User: Which sequence fits this backbone?
């Protein structure tokens, strides 16, 4: 607990459970990623966090909490992975994601079944 902030320690003493994003995020399967069973979403400097959260909810049937966890991971790490899915389900989710992105005006949102060659850095305010 020593690596937690003062406010996390204070909330914990009051009985409020404080999570880290890493604790809430599902575990990543590298073999499934290589087989194209994940959908990778890349951070961009145009799409709002609220819009991406709504897109995640619509495209992947995530509840608000899980969509927010994935969105924050994308923002902090430069990309996020959703899945793993069976191949047909991954195809179906990609189509849902394309439609939802168009409906929400997320023209700059980049997502694919190909893992990133290297992890891009999260966008930082200039």
Assistant:
């Amino acid at each position: 607990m020593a690596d937690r902030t003062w406010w996390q320690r204070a909330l914990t003493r009051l009985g409020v459970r404080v999570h880290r994003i890493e604790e809430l995020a599902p575990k990543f399967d590298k073999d499934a990623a290589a087989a194209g069973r994940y959908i990778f979403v890349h951070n961009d400097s145009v799409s709002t966090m609220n819009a991406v959260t709504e897109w995640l909810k619509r495209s992947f049937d995530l509840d608000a909490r899980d969509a927010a966890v994935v969105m924050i991971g994308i923002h902090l790490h430069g990309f996020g992975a959703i899945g793993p899915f069976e191949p047909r389900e991954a195809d179906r989710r990609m189509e849902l994601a394309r439609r939802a992105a168009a409906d929400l005006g997320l023209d700059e949102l980049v997502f694919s079944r190909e893992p990133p060659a290297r992890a891009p850095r999260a966008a930082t305010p200039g």
Remarks:
- The chain is about 50% helix and 10% strand.
